[in-house]
Amino acid sequence: MIREDTLKKYPKLKGIINELGEKITEKDMAEMTQVDLDKQDPRDVAREFLKKKGFIK
Question: pLDDT-based confidence at 57, cuts 50/70/90?
């Protein structure tokens, strides 16, 4: 899910990514992968997901 060199640079990401992994359902993934088909900005899709799940405001 994340590159090893990124984890080495930002070791705190591992816990955050693991926590997110437990929150993402198959339906969530299907909705987020729709970004490719709809030509949406992936950052906008990710931000909306994090808001919906209560990770950010």
Answer: confident
